[in-house]
Amino acid sequence: MSVRTADELPNSGPLPGRPARLRLADGAPGPEGTAFPPFVDHHVHLQMVDPDAAPRAGIAGVVDLGAELTAISALAAREPLPRVVFAGQFLTAPGGYPSDRWWLRPGSLRELPAPLAAHERRALPDPIETAVAEQAAFGARLVKVMLNADAGPVFDRETLDAVIAAARAHGLLVAAHAEGEGMARLAIEAGADALVHAPFTERLDDELLTRAAAAGERWIATFDIHARAGEASALETAIDNTARFLAAGGRVLYGTDLGNGELPDGVNAGELAAMLAAGLGAAELVAALADPWPLADAADWGGDALATFVPGPPPGDADGLPGWLAGARVVPIENLEFG
Prior knowledge:
There is one protein chain. 47% of the residues are buried. Helix 1 links the parallel strand 4 (61-64) and strand 5 (83-86). Helix 3 packs parallel to helix 4 and helix 6 packs across helix 8. The longest helix has 16 residues, at 232-247. The strands form 3 sheets. Strands 7-6-8-9-10-11-12 form a 7-stranded parallel sheet. The chain has a 5-stranded antiparallel sheet with strand order 14-13-2-1-15, with no helix packed on it. Helix content is 29%, strand content 20%. The radius of gyration is 20 Å and the shape is globular. By secondary structure, the chain is an alpha/beta fold.
């Protein structure tokens, strides 16, 4: 094939893609392009969008971060793409965010009191352990804790520790929404596995960023929600924190908060452009899209049978990557011919 290979992109490092030609439904040769492992949007809310739209625009898998358990487990059990991994309900302090939001779907919120005292646990089921066990029973792979001090009460450290301990006991990861002064620090020091937004309400100190990176914490970018809302200060803060987190060795994942306002269903060029601005290189950008977290590897997202295919030659520089990647589609590997 004459298509330019992805690893020839200047100053990018090798991209995890292979030159390929798409074979059309009638068997005729289709466009040339690049096949990548399945792309994942690591932050969506499927109850608020068309769940079938993402694969048509390059997203093979999604991580749902807040939904009613019966609804999201039913979506995860469907055969059609995208593959769905989910956290289940929003876990929050009594009266905490997002309990007062108009967009909150019935049954998608779980308000958790402080953990029971030792003498109470002998006689009563602990509400934290019960809530986490219920998320696991419905098939959740992680839980999401809401730490938004700008919008209401939040868990204290003892309660957050109890939620994380219960999650660990069930083999679940913990993702945190951290917003407001001290909330990112609270999540990081408690050992959350991921922040569901790059921290955007305050500049974090370098020592804390180094600690988060060393612990293997992931940050899900979601920059474009700030750009589209005209929140210039929040966007600047998120990009600054992320650039320094990356410099400390941190891992950043592609995620859009799909369902939060008007966002494109598939690969979001605006999100990718902001990730480049935060310091991700071209190879890192593709890796953030194809990172299998919270699953183990690409095969868990269907990577042994599916690929995300981007038609046309890769661009000549990294600035052209967002627009090129936004042309992605999900295809069966059997429909690709590799050169």
